[in-house]
Amino acid sequence: MSFAPPDADRIAKALGDITQLPKDMQMAITNKLDRSFQPVPIPDDGDWLKQHKETGQTMKSFEQNTSKAIPHATYKTIYIQPVGSFDHPRAAPLNLIIQFARAFFSGCEVELLPIVNFTKDMKYRDINGTRQYRTDGFHNYLSRTRHQRNTRRELLCVAVTMADIYPDERWNFVYGEAQPIDGVGVYSFARLDPLFYQELPEQLLKIPLTNEHRIIMLRRCIKILLHELGHLFGLHHCIYYICLMNGANNEIEMDRQPLWLCPVCLRKLYSTLQFDIRHLYETFVNLCEKYGLEDERIWYQKRLDYYGDIRLIVNHRNNPNMEFELAHKRPHSSLLKNLPLNKKQKPNDSVPKT
After folding, report:
1. Is 289 assigned a catalytic role?
2. pLDDT (tens digit per residue) in 44-85
3. PANTHER family this protein is in (predicted)?
4. Cβ neighbours for 240, distance < 8 A, ≥ 6 positions apart
5. Collapsing DSSP states into helix, strand and coil, what is residue 164?
6. What is the pTM of this model?
7. Given 177, 228, 253, 296, the catalytic residue
8. Are residues 29 and 266 in contact, defined by beta-carbon separation less than 8 angstroms?
9. Domain spans of the chain?
C-alpha cells in the first residue's frame, strides 16, 4: 500500500487532548499551521517512505513507549563522545552543534567529552581503501565505558564521528543509529559534506571549506544530531508534516528535513521536557542569526510573531480600551480589524536508516 499524507482528522487524533497544555504550547501546535508546516510529499523511488512502512506515532503511543529517555533527579546530562579525528578543515564544528542541542533539549545538560581513538574491537570493512565502521562497535564501547563517566548524571551518551558507518552487511551505510533501550547511539558526519560523493576522502581533506559549504554542513550536522537524539527521547519517524523527524534515505530527503519539529512531534517532546516554547524559539532565532542559518532564523521568528498576533487579540478581548493603542501599534494587522468580542475565534543508491 502506497503512502498517503494523513488528513486533518488523523493529525488531530495524533495530537491527542491539548486542552490542559499552557496557552503558548496550544498556540505553537494549532496556530497558522498552514503557513509554517507542509505535508509530506508522495515519495519517489528510493525515498524512505517508499521502502519503509511508517504508520505514524501518536501522542498516545508515545506515552506508552517505555524505552524513551526521561530526565529525572540528577540524570539530565547528554554526553557527546567524539571518536576519531576531527582535526581537519572540513570536520563538523562540534562546539557549535552542541549549542543547538542544549537549546533544543531544554532542561538537559549537553557535555562534549574529550576525543577518543577507534578501538581494536570496533569492526570495520574496507570500501575503496577507506574504513567504514560498524555501529555496534560504538554502542558496545559507550556501554563498556559508562563507569568512566558520571553515572549519577548520565541520561544518554552518543558517539559522533567523521568516519562512515554501517549497521550490518545488508546496508551500504547509515547516517546514524540509536539504541534507546541502552541510552546510546552513534552518528556519522562523513556523508554530510557536499563534496562527499565527488572527491576521494584523502583529497577531500585538502579542499578549503567555502562559506556556502560551511552553512550546508552545519545545517546537516545539527539536524542529524537532533534527529537521532530525538529517537532516544522516544520520537519515531514522522509522517504528519515535513519535520525534523522524517526518515531520510538520501541527500534530497535529508536536506528537505527542516530544523524544527512539526506540531505532533513538538507536543510529544514537550510532554517529556516541559520547556518554555517561546524561550526555545527565541534562543533558536539568536543561534541561527549568529551562525548564518537565515532560512531557519526567518521561520522561528515568524512563529514567534504569530504568537504575538494572538496575544494582542487576547489582550484586546480582555481590555477593549486597548483598541486605540493597538490600532496605532499594529495598523497593518487584519487580525484586529472589526473583531467581534464574542467571536470564537544528491540521491544515492544506498538504503540507510536514520
Report:
1. no
2. 998 999 999 999 999 999 999 999 999 999 999 999 999 999
3. ARCHAEMETZINCIN, ARCHAEMETZINCIN-2
4. 6, 10, 11, 14, 40, 56, 262, 263, 264, 265
5. strand
6. 0.85
7. 228
8. yes
9. 8-304
